[in-house]
Amino acid sequence: MILYGKDALKKRLDSAAEKGRLPHAIMFSGNEGSGRKIMARYTAQLFICKDKACGKCAACRNIENDSHPDVIFVKKACKNDYSSDSFRSVIRDTSVRPNNGDVKVYIFEEADTMRSDLHNVLLKLVEEPAEYLRFVFTCENPRVIPETILSRVTEFEVPDTPVSDCERFLRDNGLPNASELAEAFAGNIGKCLADKDSADMKRILIAQKAAAAVANRDVFSAAAVLSNTSVSNKEQDNKWQDFSAVMGYLSRILCDALSQKYGEPAEFFGKKESGKIASVFSEKEILNMLDACVELEKNESYHINLPLSAAYFTSRIL
Ligand SMILES: [Zn+2]
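Above: the input record for the complex with zinc ion. Below: its predicted structure, written as tokens.
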């Protein structure tokens, strides 16, 4: 299993497994989309694979596909909670010995969203587990989990993935616009995968394309990109919404260009474009474009004729 941007964490886990000291209950804390679930799967491989997560054996492959009988992802009733039923069946199930190997791994995702009465049930499980039981938890905010549980699990922080590693992941998985996506979501692989086809992502890509044309002082390309900003369907209303949103994103890139003029780092997506705009245009010119952008974003009267509005914006580039 390739763990993108998790080298240090992988090293710690590998070395613990090597010495036979992988804790029986592990908590992976980190931001949503940072790769907590991947780390849980990898840890299950470390627990179960005879070769310590070789990635090639049948056990490793089954774990990677979520089809190993001894690696149980405990189901949630809804996004924000586990059900008492799923807990009852877990409790019953823990008394059954592993199917294939020596250990059975239970994975509880988003343990910080559990109800407090379920925390108590969980405490009993991790307190005195049968020798074949292992537990992996993931959460965003460990502070809302009772200390009684936290004191019995070993916490590992899952770092956010660097943008370059995220980009490598997207490329390796054959996703288009890898560098733009990675940058737009600041390296968050989970968000890239969830939102890669969203209308917002498409609008961001259009804004970035327009910014690239602006950076080249290519008025015609910029006008062409901006007069065709529709990403939703053919409905008129959405058309204006798309245009407005693209102008909003473009103004963020221009704001970043201004920041860079003042020696501040860029904050948003399109860093390459905003950097170039900062080097090509004067402060006054950028302000002028930003003005036009905000005007077009906010003012519905400009939405009557998109090519004309696009031309109005590009006229401010010169
Ligand atoms: Zn293996």
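Notes for the reader.
The longest strand covers residues 133-139.
DSSP finds 15 helices and five strands in the chain.
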